[in-house]
Design a protein that fits this description.
By secondary structure, this protein is mostly helical. Helix content is 77%, strand content 2%. It starts with a strand and ends with a helix.
Length: 465
């Protein structure tokens, strides 16, 4: 799926890029007759059913079978095929690097481009003489970031590994560009729940940054902060706080108490207190982060709204559902204004409001809001993204509460299959869904199925340890 509007927007935003093909794109975008030519070309393709309209009138797609047929009938010489794939690599990377990554339109554009990245990869040679090493490295890193942001961690890691190999070869293992990829790979391992591996790669990045930049450099402190997140995810809260405190002290000294990076660590420490059940202390630290972010970034900045959103979660956990809804609505209104109704942050607020309705026993309203979150997440993130699957899992909980056993079973299984594919069998979210299925079978008196899944749960834990 691709949009004509995206083509024009990206072309006009890249007029100063080093990629020569953007000169062609820009000239086309500025040609007053291009709309007529493009419309007529599209009309002809539609008349032969070679194109299909997307959900908006501005987008269209070509059926995969038509793609395959065209490649077979029009297959170029291997050399030309490689050159075309290389050109496509430059154009895709240049377009992606021009995005702000904040707006919903940019997020959706990334999702539209991802299938084209996969197609391009099949035809791109291992070595690209037409591209400099630096362009390949930077491009591979950029594509890795795109797949990581969209929860496609396997493909993200493939691009990071390619970038890492090229950086190590060209610049050395301790160069900052190399270490930047190392840090991104650690981030993926953390998202996948491979916490020990994440720490191993973060330690490599940390040692390199300390040597190259010093222990108090903001980039070094960023890794300290990220390692704290891993300890937090492992449930090592005291160790996480110890490392957060190190990052906080360094940030305050190097950047000041109200710098966004400093406030980010304040926010993270609040989250640890929240996880420890120290809700009043958590709110105290969230208040500090909120005041600083409102002052430095503004009340409608996504980071400010994230703090409002998280404080609403604390109120909900405390059983202050009405207050939670009030703060969720504030976050939701801000997200819709700043990012749009289909942005992942907006949808996270919708999901959270559904959770409150579920806790209040308003199951019908909860499902209504979960369905809104699910539809948006499937569109913005994909059906197998962990956040999408989180909504699927929570809808299964509501169905179970309503006594809709078969439907709950169906949705739990959908969540489990997705988590196993996206995150692996050992990830905590996969394990949680597996335990929910065990409990559902037990409550329905299906002891044999419950015991089978329980054995599977134990086996996965044993193999992980």
């Amino acid at each position: 799926m691709i949009s004509r509007r995206n083509f024009y927007d990206v072309a006009s935003s890249r007029k100063n890029t080093v990629c020569p093909y953007w000169d062609i794109c820009e000239n086309l975008a500025n040609d007053p007759g291009i709309d007529h030519i493009l419309e007529e070309s599209i009309r002809i393709l539609f008349s032969y059913s070679l194109l299909k309209r997307g959900s908006s009138d501005d987008s269209f797609s070509i059926h995969p079978l038509v793609h395959s047929w065209a490649r077979l009938r029009l297959k170029p010489e291997p050399q030309r095929e490689a050159e075309t794939a290389t050109e496509a690599f430059q154009i895709i990377v240049s377009g992606l690097q021009s995005l702000s990554q904040q707006s919903t339109a940019d997020w959706i554009f990334e999702r539209q481009v991802m299938p084209h990245i996969n197609a391009m990869t099949k035809h791109m040679p291992p070595q690209c003489p037409a591209l400099s090493i630096i362009k390949i490295q930077n491009g591979a890193g950029t594509l890795g970031n795109v797949f990581r942001r969209h929860g496609q961690y396997k493909q993200a890691m493939e691009w990071y590994e390619r970038a890492l190999a090229e950086y190590e070869k060209a610049l050395g293992v301790d160069h900052l560009h190399t270490l930047g990829i190392v840090q991104n790979m650690a981030l993926v391992f953390n998202r996948q729940g491979q916490y020990e591996k994440a720490l191993e790669w973060y330690k490599r990045a940390l040692a390199g940054y300390e040597q190259a930049l010093g222990v108090d450099h903001p980039d070094t402190l960023g890794i300290v902060n990220n390692m704290s997140i891993v300890f937090e995810n492992q449930g090592q809260y005291e160790k996480a706080l110890e490392w957060y405190e190190r990052a906080l002290a360094g940030y305050e000294k190097a950047l000041g108490v109200d710098h966004p990076d400093t406030l980010g660590t304040v926010y993270n420490m609040a989250r640890v207190f929240d996880r420890q059940g120290q809700y009043e202390k958590a709110l105290e630290w969230y208040d500090r982060a909120l005041a600083g972010r409102e002052k430095e970034l503004g009340v409608d900045h996504p980071d400010t709204l994230a703090t409002v959103h998280t404080m609403a979660i604390v109120f909900s956990t405390q059983g202050q559902n009405e207050k939670a809804l009030e703060w969720y609505k504030r976050a939701l209104a801000g997200y819709e204004k700043a990012l749009g109704v289909d942005h992942p942050n907006t949808l996270a607020a919708v999901h959270s409001m559904a959770l409150v309705f579920s806790r209040q026993g308003q199951n019908g309203k909860a499902l209504e809001w979960y369905e809104r979150a699910l539809a948006g997440r499937e569109k913005a993130l994909g059906v197998d993204h962990p956040d999408t699957l989180g909504t699927v899992h929570n809808m299964a909980i509501v169905f179970s509460t309503q006594g809709q056993y078969e439907k709950a079973l169906e949705w739990y299984k959908r969540a489990l299959a997705g988590y196993e594919k996206a995150l692996g069998v050992h990830h905590p979210w996969t394990q949680t869904t597996l335990r929910s299925l065990v409990n559902l079978y037990e409550s329905a008196g299906q002891t044999e199925q419950a015991q089978s899944l329980q054995a599977r749960l134990h086996a996965s834990k044993s193999s992980h340890n």
